[in-house]
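A common beginner's mistake is to predict each chain separately and then try to dock the pieces by hand. The better habit, illustrated here, is to supply every component at once so that their relative placement is modeled jointly.
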Amino acid sequence: MKPALRLLLLALAAALALLVGVRVGAVPLSVGEVLDGVRGTGDAATVAIVRRLRLPRAVLAALVGGGLAASGATFQALLRNPLAEPYIMGVSGGAAVGAVLAIVLTGSLASGGIVALCAFAGALAAVLLVFRIASSVGRALDTRILLLAGVVVGAFFNACILLALTFADADAFRSAMFWIMGSLSGATWRSIGVLAAVFVPAILLLFALARSLDLLAVGEETAAALGTRVERTKLLAYGVASLLTAASVAVSGVIGFVGLVVPHVVRMLWGGGHRFLLPASVLLGAAFLVLADTLARTVAAPTELPVGVVTAFVGVPFFVYLLRRRQA
Amino acid sequence: MFSTWPRPTHPARAALLATAWLALGACAGEGRPAAGEAQADSVSVVDDGGRTVTLPRPARRVIALMPSATETLLALGVREGLVGRTDFDTGMGIDSLPSVGGGLDPSLETIVSLRPDLVVSWETSGPAPLGDRLRAMGIPVFAVKTEDTTDVFRTVASLGRLTGRGAAADSLARALRGELEAVRRSVAGQPRPSVFYMAWYDPPTTAGRGTFIAQLIDLAGGRSLFPEASALWPNVSLEEMVRRQPDFIVIPDAENGAARVRELRTTPGWRELRALREGRAVLLPAEVVNRPGPRIGEAARRLRDALHPAAAAP
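With all components supplied together, the output reads:
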């Protein structure tokens, strides 16, 4: 199968996932009712369910899933480490500190928007701190040092969260825990707009870096010898992937597993360089998270499962299957 | 109001304080009608987040997201007006209603599909994405925060106004006040045993003085083992508990409480507590003592019966 055909297939899968995400939910609706809801001609409750709850939620899931998968693929190439994932560099820890502080300190003044903004600020602070630490060691940016800096900064931020939660009252504690668990239930067209404003340029930039990432994944000397401006590539890839993760975490909290496994699945199924891997990861990540969130909403309806539970429960068996198949 | 509630050492002073509290409860019990009420049918009430909630007419399709509010609505006679429940609204005879999931993280689309004209939610001190989203879709949300007994009376009055059952709310409040006053009077002049209310055991967590539970224990003739703890649900030190030796330990878990007591009797620290060893652990059903709603009178009575068996009604 040609790469273009595979991408087309993945795009179809993502589109199908979006349709399923809008079609099913805790409330059983017929196809006709859903279509009426989309057109805005059904009764008010149905229109609200379809247009203001399901549609934005599915679209946000697609953006977050695609963004995390692209970010994970980038980190795996940049750090030359198969365990790398979007949150490995402390971005999630920084975002959580921002969000938890907003919740604990401002109390009832904290709207969802303020919490998202503080989470984003916290994530950026973590990115800058990690970069500052890593770049202060040696002359060139050593990705091993970068990884270590990310891990220790993440551990430090986790301790900060525990400290803040120890002194939080019951309400703030609950809000913070819900935030940390990650959820797409806060999806609004505004949060989608904010994320898309980061997502589109970030994804395009990463696509543009695809060839350099291929060479970087082989080794920095090889990449330099073949004409890649290694330092600039590392800096750009790190910055853009971090920013993308930060924006995703700010609107949805920490949703695990997507960013780690989706790029691996693409590699195992089709291998291939980053010019294929990155767009394929975006599409597969989008389809995967939309379906996972749909399951999370419906399996135990009306009770919603944390979406991270579903991504792991569905993703782990599939991943193990792929690993074993490759051995055989 | 209760942050400065002292440990009543003198019976007369205790009675005075309790009367003052009941009177204040009566004032707060009127609810807070918002200024500028419009038509005859429309109701406007300020919720515990300070938002004015205006309904064009008394609510007829209500979903309450906390068991205490659901119980209050049922006590006001709103049964036909309830269109949904949460997974935690158990033992109220409304199991046939569709559930919207958990009270803090319900399924939004299930709520919307039930077309409520009023949702009663918990007022959180953090961000309230749930309330914001429901309001954005045109569903009125009345957020309540019932921590102490004053809050209970205010919520009874507010929910009464919102559902057009002001008279029922008045008589419910009167009945509750009567029950509490009877309990208080029955233990007047009695010695006040110290009580550890075990909200949780690991880490040891109790009900702080701002909670209705601490107030009910006080009313029932007990005193808190940790009167100085100012948080609502403070974690307390096991060492300090051993040093202070509570006269009673109240465990809000009638189903598994006995097993818990057996376990704690062999747990380091806990086994030093004479109250556990000597059978002064009081097991009460959580749905009675943990819900700041219309059953606080019953909760006070049950606490009184445990702390002062002699004063219990025959």
